[in-house]
Specification:
Family: Belongs to the major facilitator superfamily. Proton-dependent oligopeptide transporter (POT/PTR) (TC 2.A.17) family.
Shape: globular
Subcellular location: Membrane
Membrane topology: Multi-pass membrane protein
Main location: membrane
Strand content: under 5%
Strand order of the largest sheet: 1-2
Oligomer: single chain
Structural class: mainly alpha
Number of strands: 2
CATH superfamily of the largest domain: MFS general substrate transporter like domains
Distance between the termini: 55 Å
Helix content: 55-70%
Organism: Cardamine amara subsp. amara
CATH architecture of the largest domain: Up-down Bundle
CATH topology of the largest domain: Growth Hormone, Chain: A
Number of domains: 3
Order of helices and strands: HHHHHHHHHHHHHEEHHHHHH
């Protein structure tokens, strides 16, 4: 019980940090007085880098560090990062020193984000699945306490943090929470169940590419009998496929050396099963292209949507609605849509379904999320058109208008649903199409591609601003035409849907061709 609670406090501290970072756009526009497009660019770069580092950190955890030490390093990074952020926002610094420390703080925090995201869930599950805790009533109590905390802390963070007017205090609170969480976590260092690093399965992919590259001067093997396979090595053997033939060289047995000599160097001779696992990974990569445009849509929630909310009336009766409550609605939609995806997947998958049928199964959740993206962007465009109409009617270019912030709820709920469906559907699809040990890496690769998409929003805004002659993106959001930009994103999402169907059609066609070739060989 104690071990589980010591770990779960990291999740609570992460929640406080996450809600604070979500309001970063407001700090940049209200306090640092940046143009809203420049502020959005900084937030997008920060979010993109935080997403890109996941794959590398997963490799380091599996190969060298382990989840315990990654949690220690990420908590340390959060503590120092938010500490730097608090100092940069304090009256102590100004000018270039303030900006420099601010960017250093974001870089350090980004390391904390992808380290915590990778290791916290896995390490927590290890403590739950510990043999000594199974069936223990105390474990059930601690599990209930943990879930209550996971509900209470987001609510407290969403309501309490916006009430603090001083930004250096807002940033200091997560820093203090992280330091306290680290002390509590380290107090149980000797009692945790730890899994030692056993090496990364990604090494297999690297070996296949290295072995294939070392035999570039050799021709393609004429048939599968010239390829190496060790039948006693792996129960989950893969049959040879005819696509991506350049990788077959990795398993090709050379006539110039004895087989025993070649087998000693695993970076020059791989098994057919290892080659086929690598092929299954490469076949899924074209689908990741759809994540680029999806990433642009994901970037709106804590940038342009938030800037819209900051210029709307947030009163609910006599109560001033804290803007992070919009994030709560979005997160609730994300979690709800994830559960719906899981339920749909359980219903559509039969336990005794043949493997061949599983691998041709279409990830229907992905096009659903893209269609919802079309609705989200078009609704956002309509809402922004209405908001700008109120701005022109009331002449409130530099002031908050009387239009309620609740007009933004549909687009925030849709954005949360899109994120939940897309993430879950992609993860389920990768579990079926790539080897189990590599599926997590492919999920993280998709997160990285989404990160590139988030940063691509900067380039897209720049191109649209230049094409529109600067009229769509001006000094303030009330002078700009974000509604037109949302229509551009709507068209891009439509194109993304066509791109998805094109990629999946080609993938299904290639898969059926490989299946037919295997049947002919047998």
């Amino acid at each position: 019980m104690a071990s589980f609670l010591r770990v779960i406090v990291l999740s609570w501290a992460f929640t406080v940090a996450w809600f604070t970072l979500w309001m970063l756009m407001l700090y940049l526009t209200n306090e640092m007085k940046l143009k809203f497009t420049d502020a959005a660019a900084i937030v997008n770069v920060f979010a993109g880098i935080s997403a890109l580092g996941h794959l590398l950190m997963q490799f380091l955890v599996d190969a060298f560090i382990g989840h315990f030490w990654m949690l220690c390093l990420s908590t340390l990074a959060f503590s120092f990062g938010f500490g730097f952020l608090a100092v940069s926002a304090s009256p102590i610094l100004s000018g270039g020193g303030q900006k420099g420390l601010f960017y250093v703080a974001l870089t350090v925090i980004s390391f904390g984000i992808f380290g915590r995201s990778i290791s916290l869930g896995v390490f927590t599950e290890d403590q739950i699945e510990d043999g000594g805790n199974k069936g223990n009533p105390k474990m059930l109590i601690s599990f209930v306490i943990g879930n209550v905390g996971n509900f209470v802390f987001p609510l407290l963070a969403a309501i309490a943090i916006p009430q603090i007017s001083l930004w250096f205090v807002r940033f200091a609170i997560p820093a203090g929470c992280e330091v306290l969480a680290m002390l509590i976590f380290l107090s149980g260092a000797c009692s945790y169940k730890r899994e030692k690093p056993v090496g990364s399965p990604l090494t297999t992919v690297f070996r296949v590419f290295a072995a294939s590259a070392s035999k570039m001067s050799c021709g393609y093997p004429n048939n599968s009998t010239q390829l190496y396979e060790h039948n006693e090595c792996d129960l989950d053997m893969k049959s040879h496929t005819s696509s991506l033939r350049f990788l077959d060289r990795a398993a090709m047995i050379l006539q110039t050396e004895s087989l025993e000599q070649q087998r000693k160097n695993r970076w020059k001779l791989c098994r057919v099963t290892e080659v086929e696992k690598t092929k299954s990974v490469i076949r899924t990569v074209p689908l990741f292209v759809t994540s680029l445009i999806s990433g642009i849509v994901f970037s709106l929630g804590n940038t342009f949507f938030l800037e819209q909310a900051n210029n709307l009336d947030s009163k609910f009766g006599s109560w001033n609605l804290p803007l992070p409550l919009l994030l709560l609605f979005s997160e609730a939609a994300r979690l709800g849509s994830r559960e719906l995806c899981v339920m749909a997947a359980k219903r559509s998958h039969s336990i005794d379904q043949p493997e061949a049928t599983k691998q041709t199964k279409t990830p229907y959740g992905i096009p659903v999320s893209i269609i919802l993206s079309i609705f989200c962007c078009s609704i956002a465009a309509h809402v922004e058109s209405r908001r700008l109409k109120v701005v022109r009617t009331q002449g409130l270019v530099y002031e908050t208008i009387t239009m309620s912030v609740f007009w933004l709820l549909p687009q925030y709920i849709l954005l949360g649903s899109i994120t939940g469906i897309y993430e879950n559907s992609f993860a389920l699809y990768l579990e079926e199409t790539v080897p189990e040990e590599l599926s997590q890496y492919m999920v993280l690769l998709n997160v990285g591609v989404c990160g590139i998409g988030i940063m691509s929003n900067i380039a897209l805004v720049s191109v649209v601003a230049r094409v529109s002659g600067g009229k769509w993106f001006q000094e303030t959001i009330n002078k700009s035409r974000l509604d037109n930009y949302y229509w551009v994103l709507t068209v891009l999402c439509m194109f993304n849907l066509l791109l998805y169907f094109s990629v999946t059609y080609r993938y299904t066609k290639c898969y059926k061709k490989d299946l037919a070739a295997q049947e002919n060989d047998s």
